[in-house]
Specification:
- The complex is a heterodimer of chains A (337) and B (303).
- Chain A is mainly α.
- Chain A contains 13 helices and 4 strands.
- Chain A has 2 domains: 267 residues, no CATH class; 46 residues.
- The radius of gyration of chain B is 23 Å and the shape is elongated.
- The chains are: A mainly alpha (337), B alpha/beta (303).
Chain lengths: 337, 303
C-alpha cells in the first residue's frame, strides 16, 4: 500500500516536472480570458439591442419591464387554458424574474457564476477532453519513447501496480485540471463581471418524454449548486477521456502516435453526433455522449432513448473497458523499446 | 557453487519469427559471466527476458531459485541491471531519478543515495538535470541505479558501448572490484571478444538466437596457433594441405596460420623452403576468443 502511494507520488512528480501542468495552465489562462472577453462583448451588444427594442433609456427601467413580464406570466398561470404540463415552466420563469427584481439584477448581463457554468458547458465535449489528452497521452508511451519504462519495470513492483499508480495519479491530476478551470474562471470572471450571482436560480430538470422535451419537472436550483453539478460531471468526462488516453498510451510506442490517435478519434467521433437520431449505433460511441451538461440545461437534440443516465452508462462502459484493456495490455506487453 | 541465474530452454517467437531458439545456461554465484555474440544475435532480447521486460514463448528463467514470471518480485529483487543505454528521466536531476527508483523498492535501502553517488563519482553534478549529463555521466548514474539495491546479480547489457578507452579500463576495474570485494555475480553481454576474454570466467556464445558454445574462457582459448609470414600465401596453404593434411587459414595479405602442435613446425618450414617460398617469420601465438569465434561461426563478422 505504501509503495502504491509512492508510485502515485512518482507519477504526479513526473507530470509536474515535465511542465505539463504549466502548459495546461497557460492554455487555460489564455482561453478563459478570450472567453470572458467574448462573453462580455456579446452581452453588452445584446443589452444595447434590448435597450433599443424596449426603448429603455436608463438602467432603472429594467425593473418595470420585468414587472410587466411577471404580471403577464402570473395571469397565464391562473388561466384555465394553459395545460398543467406547461405551467411548470411558467412557474420557474416567474421564480427567476422575481429573483431579478428582488436582487436588482439585469437579466441580460453575465455573472461570475453564470460564466463559470457556461465555460464548462462549452468545453466539456472538446476543449476539456483535449486538455486531458495532453495530460494522459504520454503517461506510458512517453516512457516507451525515452526508454525509462525499462527502469521502472525492473523494480520489484508488479506491473499491474505500476499501471494502477498511473491511473490513480491521472485521476488526481484530472481533479487538479478541473479545479484549475474553476479557479481561473472564477478569478478572471471576477475581474470582468461585477455581479457574482452564486445564488441566482438556474432552471434544470428537463426530461424527454415521448420524443418531446418535457418541462413538467423543471425546477430552479441556486447557481452554486448547479456549478457543483456541472463541475462534477466535467470531472467524470475527464476521467473517461483519461482512461481512454491511458489505454491508447499503453498500446502504442510513441507519444505523438497516442496524442494523434486520441485527438483524431475525439474530433472525428464528434461528427457522429450528426447522425445520432437515425443511425442508432452512433449513440454508443463515447464522443456522442460527452455533452452531459446539455441534459441539465435542456439544450439538446431530442432523440428517443437518449438521456443523462444513458450517456453516463455508455461513458462508464467505455471507461471501464479502456481500463481493463490498459491493464491487460500493460501486464502482458513485451517491452521492446 | 550455487546457481544464481538459470536459463532453461528459452525460446522467443515474435510475429511468427523465431528470434531466440532454445537457449540454456547457468550462472553460478560469484562468477563473471560473459554473454557473447554479434549485434542482432539475440543477446539483448535474452537479457530482457531474464529481467522480465519480455516474456519467453517457451522455457523458464530462474533467479536465485525464483521464477521470473511466477515470482517476479522475489526474482527481480536480487537483480540490478542496465539494459542497453542508460536512460533516465531527463527532466529530473540525477538525484531525483535515484530517489524515484528507491521509492519503488519494498524496504528502505540501507545504502544511502549519497553514498552510492559518491562511490560512482557523481557528487558534484548529482543535483543537475540529467539532460545536461554526458554519456559517461549517465553511465555512472546507471551503475548507481543498478548497485543501489545491493543486488546479488548484476546484469550489464553492452556496458562498454560508447565508452572511451579510459572509460573501458575504468569499467573493467569496477567489474573486477565488485566481483572480488563484494562477491557480486556479474552477467555481461558484449559483442567485443577482447572485453569478455579479459574479465569473464565463463562465456556463452550466441549466434542467430542459438547457443553455439558454453564453457570456461580458459578452456575456450586453450591451445595456440602458428603463424607464418610468407611471400606466397596460397601456395603455402596448398603445401600444408597436400603434404601434411593440415587446414590452414589466411591471416592477412602475407600470412597464414594453423592450429597445430609444435612438432610439425620444423618439417613444415623445411618443406616451405624447398618449395621456394620465402618465410620471413614464424611464430607461436596464444589462441584468442576471436579466433575461436571465427572458427565457430565460419568467419561471421563481429561488431
Amino acid at each position: 500500500m505504501k509503495r502504491l502511494v509512492n508510485i502515485v507520488k512518482n507519477e504526479i512528480l513526473k507530470i509536474f516536472y515535465k511542465k505539463r501542468m504549466h502548459v495546461i495552465t497557460a492554455i487555460l489562462f489564455i482561453v478563459i480570458i478570450l472567453f470572458a472577453y467574448g462573453e462580455h462583448y456579446t452581452l453588452s451588444k445584446a443589452q444595447e439591442r434590448a435597450a433599443v427594442q424596449f426603448e429603455i433609456e436608463n438602467e432603472e427601467e429594467w425593473k418595470n419591464i420585468l414587472e410587466l413580464q411577471l404580471a403577464d406570466l402570473e395571469r397565464r398561470l391562473d388561466s384555465a387554458y394553459i395545460p398543467d404540463r406547461g405551467k411548470a415552466s411558467i412557474r420557474v420563469r416567474v421564480e427567476q424574474i422575481k429573483f431579478y427584481i428582488d436582487y436588482d439584477v439585469n437579466p441580460i448581463s453575465s455573472s461570475v457564476a453564470r460564466f463559470m457554468g457556461r465555460l464548462i458547458e462549452q468545453s466539456i465535449f472538446l476543449f476539456l477532453p483535449l486538455l486531458i489528452i495532453l495530460l494522459a497521452a504520454d503517461m506510458v508511451s512517453g516512457e516507451m519513447t525515452f526508454g525509462t519504462i525499462k527502469l521502472i519495470l525492473t523494480r520489484p513492483v508488479k506491473r499491474w501496480r505500476i499501471i494502477m499508480g498511473k491511473l490513480l495519479a491521472l485521476s488526481m491530476l484530472e481533479m487538479v485540471v478541473i479545479s484549475m478551470i474553476a479557479l481561473l474562471s472564477y478569478l478572471i470572471a471576477s475581474m470582468v463581471f461585477s455581479y457574482s450571482g452564486f445564488n441566482e436560480p438556474v432552471v434544470t430538470g428537463f426530461r424527454v418524454l415521448e420524443n418531446q422535451l418535457d418541462t413538467s419537472a423543471v425546477r430552479t436550483i441556486p447557481q452554486w449548486q448547479y456549478l457543483l453539478m456541472v463541475y462534477a460531471i466535467a470531472y467524470f468526462v475527464a476521467f473517461v477521456i483519461g482512461s481512454l488516453s491511458l489505454m491508447v498510451s499503453v498500446m502504442v510506442q510513441s507519444t505523438s502516435a497516442s496524442i494523434g490517435i486520441m485527438m483524431s478519434t475525439l474530433i472525428g467521433g464528434s461528427f457522429l453526433s450528426l447522425f445520432i437520431s437515425e443511425w442508432k449505433i452512433t449513440r454508443y460511441f463515447f464522443t456522442t455522449n460527452l455533452n452531459l451538461t446539455a441534459y441539465l440545461t435542456g439544450d439538446f437534440q431530442i432523440v428517443e432513448g437518449l438521456s443523462m443516465s444513458f450517456s453516463i452508462l455508455v461513458l462508464l462502459g467505455w471507461s471501464i473497458g479502456a481500463i481493463i484493456i490498459a491493464f491487460i495490455f500493460f501486464t502482458q506487453k513485451d517491452i521492446l523499446s | 557453487m550455487e546457481i544464481i541465474l538459470s536459463v532453461k530452454n528459452v525460446s522467443k517467437t515474435i510475429r511468427g519469427k523465431q528470434i531466440i531458439n532454445d537457449i540454456s545456461f547457468n550462472v553460478k554465484e560469484g562468477q563473471i559471466y560473459g554473454f557473447l555474440g554479434p549485434n542482432g544475435a539475440g543477446k539483448t532480447m535474452t537479457i530482457r527476458m531474464i529481467v522480465g521486460l519480455m516474456y519467453p514463448t517457451s522455457g523458464s528463467i530462474e533467479i536465485g531459485g525464483y521464477d521470473i514470471r511466477k515470482s517476479f518480485v522475489k526474482a527481480i529483487s536480487q537483480v540490478g541491471c542496465i539494459i542497453e543505454n542508460p536512460e533516465f528521466y531527463e527532466y529530473f536531476s540525477g538525484f531525483d531519478n535515484l530517489e524515484l527508483l528507491r521509492k519503488m523498492e519494498p524496504h528502505d535501502l540501507k545504502l544511502g543515495i549519497n553514498e552510492i553517488v559518491e562511490w560512482v563519482g557523481l557528487s558534484k553534478r548529482i543535483h543537475d538535470k540529467v539532460s545536461t549529463y554526458s554519456l559517461g555521466m549517465k553511465q555512472r548514474l546507471g551503475i548507481a541505479q543498478a548497485l543501489m539495491k545491493k543486488p546479488k546479480l548484476l546484469i550489464l547489457d553492452e556496458p562498454t558501448n560508447g565508452l572511451d578507452p579510459a572509460g573501458i579500463i575504468e569499467f573493467r576495474n569496477l567489474v573486477q572490484m565488485l566481483s572480488k570485494e563484494r562477491g557480486m555475480t556479474i552477467f555481461i553481454s558484449s559483442h567485443q571478444l577482447s572485453e569478455i576474454q579479459m574479465i569473464c570466467d565463463e562465456v556463452a556464445i550466441v549466434l542467430h538466437g542459438k547457443m553455439i558454445q558454453n564453457s570456461k574462457v580458459q578452456a575456450l582459448s586453450q591451445g595456440h596457433k602458428i603463424i607464418w609470414h610468407v611471400d606466397d600465401v596460397p601456395k603455402a596453404r596448398k603445401i600444408l594441405r597436400e603434404k601434411f593434411d593440415i587446414e590452414s587459414f589466411k591471416d592477412s595479405q602475407d600470412s597464414l596460420y594453423a592450429n597445430i602442435d609444435d612438432d610439425y613446425i620444423e618439417r613444415i618450414n623445411r618443406e616451405l623452403l624447398f618449395s621456394d617460398i620465402a618465410v620471413k617469420f614464424v611464430y607461436k601465438k596464444q589462441k584468442s576468443l576471436e579466433d575461436l569465434f571465427m572458427e565457430l561461426t565460419g568467419g561471421e563478422t563481429i561488431g
